[in-house]
């Protein structure tokens, strides 16, 4: 299993926690009744076998607007005063909070303006506009879009709807925790994708009060992990997110409200690699027939990284969202196939004589691999005049099969580079 890193905090005590309790979450649940979808839970036999414990997926990817974000957005917007509603709202998001705010604003008759990064996925842009919000693209990250939203709020008087750093947002997201307790009463471990922290903070707040025996673990993309360093220093500390497929959790600075709850409730934080994210997405898509975005697969990625039996079951990974650009999906699935040993790219030198390529193709077929693409080159300067280079993409059945294919080709005398 690929390891994941872990972080804890001992510098924040419960006395310093923001005021978000189980009662706040229950009040939000009442407010959201009939507004949001009570998303299903789905048992995964494949993940249960890997984890050595029962695994039940909480499918927020099937939520209205495609993610959990509408829970917090509607809770926050519905509590604005009539005067605040008249001023309109402004938000910033990589896409899911944008859609949640746009949908909630349309239901409540509030004018919404949303700032999104310039490279935000097209489906998220289109959906946000489709719900009636005005969209402006600025910067290359959620943090830059949020800075622009703050400027606009100060200039226009619009109410800033922060994606995670507000008690109402946290309480709304925490309603997922109540549903998990009702749907999986004996739940022992909850794995939660973690960006700014609103989702895991809300779930931790309600479980700490109602079911303190339940272990809550936040999962960040290693390329955009602000919480580990923040938990070590005892305060929100900014990082510069690197490139990650998990744009939905690529947040550079934890929010004050969620950080206090995450630290005070002793939530463990783990990080997962891009390979684990792609493998997690592929696993959910292939075995559970559920579409998730990379950020939405973070909890499953942590499960894949863990040793069998490491998490006490039932384990509930939260699939936080399913809004993924089809073009991104193609790349991520390919990445996941490679990471899982299901896809192999070979560079092979063969003699430049009739029948050499046919012998190579026969050897690949005999090894049980399926050739997807072949490119044949004689012009590489590293080749001798009597050689050609063959770049070959093949499908394999597993990591073990991938290794066996390479070993067989080398045993038959081919010069193979992977």
Molecular structure report:
The protein has 418 residues and is an alpha/beta fold. The protein folds into 3 domains: 5-67 and 167-337, Rossmann fold (3-Layer(aba) Sandwich), CATH 3.40.50.1100; 69-161, Rossmann fold (3-Layer(aba) Sandwich), CATH 3.40.50.1100; 341-417, ACT domain (Alpha-Beta Plaits, 2-Layer Sandwich), CATH 3.30.70.260. The protein is built from 16 helices and 15 strands. The strands form 3 sheets. The chain has a 7-stranded mixed sheet with strand order 1-10-9-8-11-3-2. A 4-stranded parallel sheet has the order 6-5-4-7, sandwiched between helices. It is elongated, with a radius of gyration of 24 Å. Keywords: Lyase, Pyridoxal phosphate. Residues 345-418 form the ACT domain.
Characteristic key phrases:
Rossmann fold, seven-stranded mixed beta sheet, Alpha-Beta Plaits, four-stranded parallel beta sheet, alpha/beta, 418 residues
* Bulk shape: elongated
Distance between the termini: 21 Å
Q: Largest beta sheet, briefly?
A: 7 strands, mixed
- Identify low-pLDDT runs: 10-17
List the strand order in the largest sheet: 1-10-9-8-11-3-2
Radius of gyration, Cα only, in angstroms?
24 Å
SSE class:
alpha/beta
Kindly identify the CATH topology of the largest domain: Rossmann fold
| Average residue-wise pLDDT | 89
Q: In the CATH classification, which architecture of the largest domain applies?
A: 3-Layer(aba) Sandwich
Quickly name the level 1 CATH class of the largest domain. Alpha Beta
Domain unit count: 3
